[in-house]
């Protein structure tokens, strides 16, 4: 998540970027921009020739350049292999990623086309949908196993280093460092090969996967990293447990894994690591939150104060899982 100071909308900035760098429909633009959302990026919808597109912005200080360019390269690789995922839209200059100096600061900017289908979150999560959902992740991991990039995104070890540095900078409680040490030691004992480790999505949850006629399209590869593939599966399972009723959870997991195994292998060692992956997700999420809420302001809007309280509550919940 971006730092709190970056969570304000900036329609003036977005309009200026669209005007200078991307073709777009001016009619109805204000209405479209009103559907913006800001979390780990600022996402602003717009239309071009009637088609829904998205402009994505993030302050340069919030992102690693190699992760951004690595994301774009991976998405292009997926497109060449006919994998249904979001497609970048080149700017007027032909670039897919722009590094812009603006009156409001320096930003990385990209744009994407909307994918087909509806979010899995808005479906009935039937057996067929869960199977297609798992199949989409399995194929993604199979393609990742054969992927050899020019620009490589960061890996689990680099993320662990970032977590430790962030916990230290913001003086996190001792239990977080103990958790970090245990997770790192456990990771050091896991095997790594092309079948179980590669570039993962890291946010393959219901709101980032769209279902349409027995196949799924995927968006939001921003958080991807090199990690064990079971990380993606563990997060899917967390999502299933949070979103479905108790009577649906087990069948949903079974159908998801059937779909996954139809495209990619899943060993006993990989399955045994689910809880470890969930601990990593919890700790990484904690580090991102402690950084997000660190900035203090003499005067802040009510929505920011309320959000700060909510995020600190999430931090306490994550911290409790480490004790």
TrEMBL record:
Keywords: Kinase, Transferase. It comes from the Bacteria. Residues 54-260 form the Aminoglycoside phosphotransferase domain. GO terms for molecular function: amino acid kinase activity. The keyword Kinase applies. Gene3D superfamilies: 3.90.1200.10. Belongs to the pseudomonas-type ThrB family. PANTHER family: AMINOGLYCOSIDE PHOSPHOTRANSFERASE DOMAIN-CONTAINING PROTEIN, AMINOGLYCOSIDE PHOSPHOTRANSFERASE DOMAIN-CONTAINING PROTEIN-RELATED. This is Ser/Thr protein kinase RdoA (MazF antagonist).
């Amino acid at each position: 998540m971006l730092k709190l100071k970056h969570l304000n909308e900036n329609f003036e900035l977005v309009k200026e970027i669209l005007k200078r760098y991307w073709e777009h429909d001016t009619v109805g633009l204000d209405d479209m921009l009103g559907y913006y959302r800001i979390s780990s990026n600022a996402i602003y919808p717009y239309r071009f020739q009637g088609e829904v597109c998205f402009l994505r912005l993030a302050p340069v200080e919030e992102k690693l350049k190699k992760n951004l360019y690595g994301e774009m390269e991976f998405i292009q690789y997926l497109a060449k292999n006919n994998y249904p995922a979001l497609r970048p839209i080149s700017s007027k200059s032909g670039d897919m990623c722009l590094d812009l100096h603006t009156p409001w600061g320096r930003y990385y900017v990209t744009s994407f086309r909307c994918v087909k289908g509806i979010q899995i979150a808005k479906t009935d999560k039937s057996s067929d949908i869960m199977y297609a959902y798992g199949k989409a992740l399995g194929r993604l991991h199979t393609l990742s196993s054969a992927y050899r990039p020019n620009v490589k995104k960061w890996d689990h070890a680099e993320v662990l280093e970032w977590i430790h540095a962030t916990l230290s900078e913001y003086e996190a409680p001792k239990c977080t460092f103990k958790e970090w040490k245990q997770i790192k030691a456990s990771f050091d004992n896991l095997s790594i090969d092309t079948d179980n480790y590669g570039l993962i999505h890291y946010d393959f949850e219901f709101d980032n996967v769209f279902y349409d006629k027995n196949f799924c399209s995927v968006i939001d590869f921003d958080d991807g990293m090199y990690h064990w593939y079971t990380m993606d599966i563990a997060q899917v399972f967390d999502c299933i447990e949070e979103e479905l009723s108790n009577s649906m959870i087990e069948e949903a997991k079974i159908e998801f894994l059937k779909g996954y195994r139809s495209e990619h292998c899943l060993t006993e060692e990989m399955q045994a690591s689910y809880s470890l992956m969930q601990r990593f997700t919890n700790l990484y999420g904690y580090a991102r939150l402690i950084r997000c809420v660190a900035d203090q302001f003499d005067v802040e809007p009510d929505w920011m104060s309320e959000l700060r309280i909510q995020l600190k509550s999430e931090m306490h919940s994550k911290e409790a899982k480490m004790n």
